[in-house]
Fold this protein.
Amino acid sequence: MAHGYVSDKERYLARLKRIEGQTRGIHRMIDEDVYCIDVLTQISAITSALENVALALLDDHINHCVRHAAEHGGKDEIDEKLNEVNAAITRLVKS
Amino acid sequence: MAHGYVSDKERYLARLKRIEGQTRGIHRMIDEDVYCIDVLTQISAITSALENVALALLDDHINHCVRHAAEHGGKDEIDEKLNEVNAAITRLVKS
Amino acid sequence: MAHGYVSDKERYLARLKRIEGQTRGIHRMIDEDVYCIDVLTQISAITSALENVALALLDDHINHCVRHAAEHGGKDEIDEKLNEVNAAITRLVKS
Amino acid sequence: MAHGYVSDKERYLARLKRIEGQTRGIHRMIDEDVYCIDVLTQISAITSALENVALALLDDHINHCVRHAAEHGGKDEIDEKLNEVNAAITRLVKS
């Protein structure tokens, strides 16, 4: 079964390409001795962008993979999916 | 006056190069239809790595730029530096 | 149907009673002019404790309410439950 | 020397009294078997409120205690104050 995000793949790839470019941008800022506060501002922007990608992926995962398992899977499969989701949420909240 | 991080520049550049590579890795994971949970795990790792870079930069900034201003600068310069730091902390906490 | 947390209610009530006491403790610290850094340390402890309660509640909710809806509910009920969960996760991550 | 927040003490005490009441409110919600999602919404509101109190305290602390040390203190006192601030920022970001 295709993962939840596959239907939106191009958008995810574009967002990640942009984040990769922003990360390279920070490398350049440090290399060019840009003022610390400006570098920090850029890092906060990337952290938020990554967080939003993660929330969108989690949303897709819950709405497709978890949902499919709950509707069609056996007890073990559902247990596994739900444990995975809860662990992913904890990592996201704690990171 | 050189920024606080300049004395540690090579280490920052190496850390950022690694994060850039990790971000490219996520792009590849999505491109190769890797399971959502594994992608989410990788994003949490990058968010934490970025957060640690930001905390280190902030530490350097406070210990050098802010400290220098407080020791040698006039009232206006100190006000400006402290306002900048507080705004950077808020962005970091809220991102 | 009883909510997911009901089976663990006493433990939640005890944890929340402790957090309430800690919050009252901060009020007292400010009232008694305790050093700022010590107050900040206590606030970080409470924020983490609240976050852990939220993660536990979310875990219970997903494992009971969401699971029950997915196994026995119609499309609309499942949609509603999943949208609620995703909104709760976003609030938790962004707070 | 009075701490940074002392000039704003009444406002801090009022905010903390409100947060304490909100925490008691969550206890009551659990006690009365309120729906999980509604409890989670309230916890996110309290976490944000606590975070804002912490940011305000940190702002006051930096603008008064740290500033005073940097302007009038010796090297050791400044080192101590800056290390404290950086540790407090890390706790706040990581909690």
About this structure: Chain C is about 85% helix and 0% strand. Helices of chain C lie at 9-31, 36-72, 75-94.
